[in-house]
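Quick sanity check, NADH-FMN oxidoreductase RutF, flavin reductase (DIM6/NTAB) family:
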Amino acid sequence: MDDRMFKTAMGKFATGVTVITTEFDDQVRGMTANAFMSVSIDPKLVLISVANKARMLDWIKQSGHFAVNILSESQQDKSMIFAGQLQDREVEFERFEGLPVIEDSLVTLACDVYETHLAGDHTLFVGAVKNLQLQDRQPLTIYEGKYKDVSDKAATEV
């Protein structure tokens, strides 16, 4: 299988959209990511995956902490800004647990780096969740590389 086929197959998995934020030397950095997951409840751990060529990698390593901003459906522009798809847009950050975070996110998780693992062309950061904020809104989702509307057509509780 070639790289394109693998990427197409991974795009068949619908995911939420996050922006990972951190700060080091008074400079705030962020990146859009859908490689995020819950790892453990006790202790409360999450995982993010950052490309080894991404500038964000060194920022998280140096700061030792990051925030996961799970975006709501009204925040597609924030996703596009941090993915480099929208230029010349300013983003105002709020502070939560000492970290820069995106206002009105569906969920905000403040994390300390718990473990780091090199995995192929990415680095996996396991974050220990210090605190969280959440709101009741619809999530921003992506499927096959496109933003999708999530509606409760025939919602069945899992």
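Posting the structure with no commentary besides this: The first strand starts at residue 15 and ends at 16.
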